[in-house]
Specification:
The structure is a homodimer. By secondary structure, chain A is α/β, with parallel strands linked by helices. Chain A has three domains: 44 residues, no CATH class; 138 residues, Rossmann fold (3-Layer(aba) Sandwich), CATH 3.40.50.2300; 135 residues, Response regulator (Rossmann fold). The first copy, chain A, is built from 13 helices and eleven strands. A six-stranded mixed beta sheet of chain A has the order 7-6-8-9-10-11, sandwiched between helices. In chain A, strands 2-1-3-4-5 form a five-stranded parallel beta sheet, sandwiched between helices. In chain A, helix 1 crosses helix 2, helix 5 crosses helix 13 and helix 8 packs across helix 9. Chain A binds a DNA duplex through helix 2 and helix 4.
Chain lengths: 343, 343
DNA sequence: CTGTTAGCGCATTCAC
DNA sequence: GTGAATGCGCTAACAG
């Protein structure tokens, strides 16, 4: 079913049909009536590719995100974005990255300002710092530049889409895995990694909530305890942790709520502790290595590639057709459990 | 980079460039040299959509598969095929299904013959019966009709692609889950569902192998035992099974190697047995219900939708461009672990 | 307000 | 052997 066919069926010109479809210009009531009558039963669907071909618009997409490190989370997201660019190669897209140090607010501000100076048609935001990100969004709103969120979301923004896993569910699933790994009388510990800045706070918070809720509804099991570990500066904090583990052999199972599971795994290994289970997040190269080695038992993964792909896909649809904002969840991307056996 | 640009850069006409790109006609050495020089550094990639637009070919795809039941495995595959058809809606595709009863060789033969009578451009094969499928493939080979396999594969065929999870790995993963669910002193039982016909034998065989290999390398754990359960005819076989379970309370964990986990779960429930764990395959509606109810602990899932999507995508690429056969694995689709908490 | 036309990238046909 | 012309579905600009 093409525009031409519609026009023939309704006795008007293709131009008019196009005008009605994209409610571009003023159209007479009669013409509209005739065309819509045909449209009602014809299930016409616009061919996005020929449409783009004709529009021959070119879009520049900006991506702001934490520094992309090979084999890391945002590296996979970029892979997904690349794939989408490939898939829609008939649409002229240029993608520019603005990376920032996720532990440095100033670097983030700088990246955001650069982005605002560059003229871009749409933005993919991988935000870390709430205040700065919200401010960025309101600037974009003013310029009516559409944007989507990946991984995080903040309230009070008008994003066109939002791509992330359901972190609360992730936490629940993690709870179940921990529950399985630890025998009834053993203890579970959630390791909170101290970090400069408020990074990932929303996601890890949701995960913790899910985890706790799992254990609340779980009779006959001690509630997991928490340990705050500082991997960066104070050496003695690490040693304290190791000592604590040595002194509490019944702590059999450790949860790491962000992608740094490998750091904990390596720390244990370098101290000759090999009788604890670790469950972590994200299939980064380092974490995969630990899964291989057996120092991590389970990894919970989002689908970063899919997130990247769908983000760009969403923006393209929006740029071409202003298709409805769908600002809520865009079909929340799922969680995946990864084990050594799957590698 | 367009054909026109290439032609300008190399000082020939677009027609000639096209001839060279698709090595269609005889082209003079000089022209070829000039164009290939430009091509070498220009990384031209044909725009599949405009290409299809111009070719305005229409393809008819045939799908042969076991009867599609709503909420079942092949239903999801069809969803993926539909999605691909949507995504490539600029290419005129008609998809026709030939379903057969997977427990009835004759019905399968009938479907295969119908398929061969219908003239189609390519085939997606969800085979069950080896002999019949191999024969179908050789008929298709003779007509040089390309085909891909979903879910199963048989040797001696010349498929253009093959979309399935790695069943051996699935088995290993299942082993790990069973190992986790059952306490050290408890026993694990693999339930083999007796079925008419040789259905799914390859897949379940691979799964069993993986499962066994997991436990071989797993010290201090009894090897899982097997029970062959006949759900269809003999009532006493079921009762025997229930009695056996009642008499062996240390059998805490049951594995079902195909998608019928829900049948076992329901059987236990209707007999008031609720202290056993079940691990099964495939996220069918029935299995999902059991996961919800808590009667199934884990489901291992392939990505049937993705398999369907990629199958059609692969065929399109092949039909349009005879792109290299890639008859091996086409990036084996992964396995996924599903739990109640993810729902 | 509406029909006509040209052109996007590509493949084919038809003159040369 | 090769270039020019045409049309696929769609949009935009222009002329009525």
């Amino acid at each position: 079913m093409t525009i031409k066919q519609i026009s023939e069926l309704s006795g008007v010109s293709p131009g008019t049909v196009d005008r009605i479809l994209h409610n571009r210009d003023k159209v007479s009531k009669e013409a509209r009536a005739k065309v819509e009558a045909v449209l009602a039963k014809a299930d016409y669907r616009c061919n996005i590719h020929t449409s783009a071909l004709s529009l021959r618009k070119s879009f520049s997409i900006a991506v702001v995100c934490p520094t992309i490190i090979k084999g890391d989370y945002w590296h996979s997201i970029r892979a997904g974005i690349d794939k989408a660019q490939e898939e829609y190669s008939d649409i002229e897209l240029s993608v520019q990255y603005f990376e920032y140090d996720q532990y440095d607010t100033e670097s983030c501000k700088r990246a955001f300002n650069q982005l605002l100076d560059s003229s871009c048609s749409a933005v993919i935001i991988g935000g870390t710092f709430e205040e700065e990100t919200v401010s960025l969004c309101s600037s974009l709103d003013k310029k009516s530049t559409p944007y989507v969120f990946i991984d995080t979301r903040f309230d009070g923004c008008h994003q066109v889409g939002h791509f992330t896993a359901d972190q609360y569910k992730c936490g629940k699933v993690m709870g179940k895995l921990l529950d399985l790994l630890a025998l009834a009388e053993e203890r579970i510990c959630v390791i909170r990694l101290a970090r400069t800045g408020s990074s990932h706070s929303f996601n890890t918070g949701e995960r913790l909530k899910g985890l706790q809720d799992y254990f609340s509804s779980c009779a006959g099991r001690k509630f997991p305890e928490e340990f705050t570990l500082n991997l960066s500066s104070q050496e003695n904090n690490k040693e304290q942790f190791i000592e604590w583990l040595r002194g509490n052999r019944d702590i059999s199972t450790l949860a790491v709520l962000n992608s740094k599971g490998h750091s904990v795994a390596d720390l244990l290994r370098s101290n000759g502790i090999s009788d604890r289970h670790i469950v972590g997040f994200d299939a980064t190269d380092e974490n995969i290595r630990c899964l291989h080695e057996g120092t991590i038992s389970f990894l919970l993964c989002q689908h970063p590639e899919q997130q990247g792909f769908e983000s760009l896909q969403r923006l393209i649809a929006y740029l071409l057709y202003r298709s409805p904002a769908n600002s809520g969840d865009t079909g929340p991307v799922g969680v995946e459990i990864l084990t050594k056996e799957m590698l």
